[in-house]
Specification:
111 residues, mainly alpha, two-stranded antiparallel sheet, 11% strand, elongated
Length: 111
């Protein structure tokens, strides 16, 4: 979880820094307008507002940083879930063992 938080913070810092650099460039450098389109023929069409190519590259870079951290954290999450379930099973077996010991001592006292 620390890695994900670290990646989000680093992505925000990079975003602010690179956005500052990007905004101080002239229009011709990375200012080409680009619009994304998604169409299902006959049903609907979605088109975004034109955004500069530089901003799209900056956004893709920052989203990529966060997604890599999330993908690295997934195995850790699954391992912790597996460990919790095994610990739960161990506690259950320990309870059964103490119960059986108590039953055997009670049966030994009766004889």
């Amino acid at each position: 979880m620390k890695r994900v938080v670290f990646a989000v913070i680093m992505a925000l810092i990079f975003f602010v820094l690179l956005n500052f650099i990007y905004c101080n460039l002239d229009v011709q450098t990375l200012g080409y307008q680009m619009a994304f389109k998604f169409t299902i023929p006959g049903i609907f069409t979605v088109r975004t507002l034109p955004i500069p190519v530089g901003f799209a590259l900056l956004l893709a870079f920052c989203i990529g940083m966060v997604m890599i951290a999330i993908l690295e954290a997934l195995p850790t999450i699954y391992k912790s879930l597996e460990l919790r379930s095994k610990n739960k099973k161990i506690r259950q077996l320990e309870r059964e063992l103490t119960l059986m010991r108590q039953m055997s001592t009670n049966a030994g006292e009766k004889l």
